[in-house]
């Protein structure tokens, strides 16, 4: 993880928030390559959920919601972690994350000082809205994006004539006052989620749940993730969230071990039932194709962390490889083997020399490719070093313009994964890249 964190900073993927002030715990900034990667991961998920499903539509709900939302959802009462403090060194721990003996003996795992009793700590960030700071002005930062979907489900049925089963997808920020925020961007206080809520008829929920499990697994396969680094984990009774009847996590083998990447949850009619109770509005679905049968839909939720997916894709792509292309058998190259559809830069154009018109020719090629691909241009330093810089950024293709290009109009196309180089006529470059991206298969 240290190597990934350091590469992420060095190459402008992710920076610590407010670094010049010593950093802000639990918050990270996405740099030029990081925002491109995050946008592409979000784009892939959005396409999968909305474009490829006729019955799923999108939504972008506000982060600030009426405070009753969080009473209805159960978050005010139940969204807590067990917490203990050390009276001596003032460290704070999640009681379920330190050895049981320490809890029993009330002994701090860091300094041996006395621990407080375990108490419930609500993870929601609380603030005030408006000029007065009283109980009537309390507002929460949403701890999940899902509730914005539930409170809009009737609006969407009416405005978009949706019929059950149907889904609503949303990508957005969520906030949790996490006590433990180690492991880079894995668990943070400010993060992004990609959530889809699928509204189904009660009784069909178990079949739909299984179907969504299959679809989410297939999605990661399509992204080119190492499938032996993914596994399912079913929640036991003491892990189930307060709203869930059944829940499975897709876990990924991160450098610190198997950890949750995404959850698939059967939330039953809990959320809509509670919103109905707390708002006094009827949240039932009226099935006009079935004698106006009324029922409160069950919800199957697929909930993935976008920022956690960024970390997963970085870990999955990271590779160090012994190469001998500079005549040194111990030479190691660091390479990010992103799928071309996710890579922040798809193609880098490099003139072998700045002089003799090569730079101008390379600039022209870049301009042509720019319309269809995310490009980079680099003319600084030895060509081998420039290839390595692109390998570290995860750029799958480099195009090099040399003296032969001036003579016969061909350029060198260099592949990141195999380091193979072929000559391609300049005019065929865009089409060749399209074909290479379509047929891309990871070789390592
Ligand atoms: N709406 C259901 C829900 O929020 P969750 O299991 O608490 O369920 C879903 O969160 C996903 O959101 C997780 O699988 C994880 O990818 C991401 N996530 C949750 N808490 C996070 C945090 N503190 N930092 C980064 N990602 C987080």
Describe the structure.
It is built from 14 helices and 23 strands. The mean pLDDT is 95. It is globular, with a radius of gyration of 26 Å. A hairpin with a 6-residue loop joins strand 4 (80-85) and strand 5 (92-94). The chain is of the alpha+beta class and 444 residues long. The strands form 7 sheets. The protein has a 7-stranded mixed sheet. 31% of the residues lie in helices and 28% in strands. Helix 2 (32-51) crosses helix 10. The site of glycyl-adenosine-5'-phosphate (GAP) has 19 residues, from strand 10, strand 13, strand 16 and helix 10.
Can you tag this structure with a few keywords?
single chain, 444 residues, seven-stranded mixed β-sheet, five-stranded mixed β-sheet, 23 strands, binds glycyl-adenosine-5'-phosphate
Furnish the topology, listing elements before pairings.
Layout: H1 2-10, E1 14-16, E2 28-30, H2 32-51, E3 56-58, H3 68-72, H4 75-78, E4 80-85, E5 92-94, H5 100-105, E6 119-122, E7 126-128, E8 138-140, H6 146-150, H7 153-160, E9 166-175, E10 190-200, H8 205-222, E11 230-234, E12 246-254, E13 257-268, H9 270-279, E14 285-287, E15 293-295, E16 298-305, H10 306-317, E17 318-323, E18 331-336, E19 347-351, H11 358-370, E20 375-377, H12 383-393, E21 397-401, H13 403-408, E22 410-415, E23 421-425, H14 429-438
The structure holds glycyl-adenosine-5'-phosphate (GAP).
């Amino acid at each position: 993880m240290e190597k990934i964190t350091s590469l992420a900073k060095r190459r402008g993927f992710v920076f610590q928030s407010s670094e010049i002030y010593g950093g802000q715990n639990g918050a990270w900034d996405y740099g030029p390559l990081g925002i491109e990667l995050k946008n592409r991961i979000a784009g892939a998920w959005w396409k999968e959920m909305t474009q490829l499903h006729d019955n799923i539509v999108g939504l972008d709900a506000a982060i600030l919601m009426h405070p009753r939302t969080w009473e209805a959802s159960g978050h005010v009462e139940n969204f807590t972690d067990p917490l203990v403090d050390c009276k001596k060194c003032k460290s704070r721990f999640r009681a379920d994350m330190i050895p049981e003996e320490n809890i029993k003996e009330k002994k701090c795992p860091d300094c041996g000082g006395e621990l407080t009793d375990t108490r419930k700590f609500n993870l929601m960030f609380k603030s005030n809205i408006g000029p007065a700071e009283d109980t009537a002005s309390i507002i929460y930062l949403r701890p999940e994006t899902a509730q914005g979907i539930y409170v809009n489900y009737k609006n969407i049925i009416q405005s978009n004539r949706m019929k059950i089963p149907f889904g609503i997808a949303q990508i957005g920020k969520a906030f949790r006052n996490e006590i433990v925020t180690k492991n880079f961007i894995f668990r943070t206080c400010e993060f992004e989620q990609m959530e889809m809520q699928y509204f189904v008829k009660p009784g069909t929920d178990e079949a739909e749940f299984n179907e969504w499990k299959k679809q989410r697994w297939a999605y990661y396969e399509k992204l080119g993730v190492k499938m032996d680094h993914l596994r399912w984990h079913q929640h036991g009774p003491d892990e189930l969230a307060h709203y869930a009847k059944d829940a499975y996590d897709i876990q990924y083998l991160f450098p610190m071990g198997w950890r949750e990447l995404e959850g698939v949850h059967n939330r039953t009619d809990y959320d809509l039932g509670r919103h109905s109770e707390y708002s006094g509005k009827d949240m039932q679905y009226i099935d006009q194709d079935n004698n106006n049968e009324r029922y409160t839909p069950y919800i199957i939720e697929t909930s993935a962390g976008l920022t956690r997916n960024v970390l997963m894709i970085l870990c999955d792509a990271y590779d160090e490889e012994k190469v001998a292309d500079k005549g040194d058998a111990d030479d190691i190259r660091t390479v990010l083997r992103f799928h071309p559809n996710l890579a922040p830069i798809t193609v880098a154009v490099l003139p072998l020399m700045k002089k003799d018109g090569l730079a101008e020719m390379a600039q022209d090629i870049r301009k042509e490719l720019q319309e269809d691909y995310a490009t980079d241009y680099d003319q600084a330093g030895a060509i081998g070093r420039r290839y390595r810089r692109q390998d570290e950024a995860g750029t799958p293709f480099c195009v090099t313009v040399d003296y032969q290009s001036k003579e016969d109009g061909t350029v060198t196309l260099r592949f990141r994964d195999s380091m193979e180089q072929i000559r391609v006529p300049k005019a065929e470059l865009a089409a060749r890249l399209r074909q290479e991206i379509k047929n891309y298969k990871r070789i390592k």
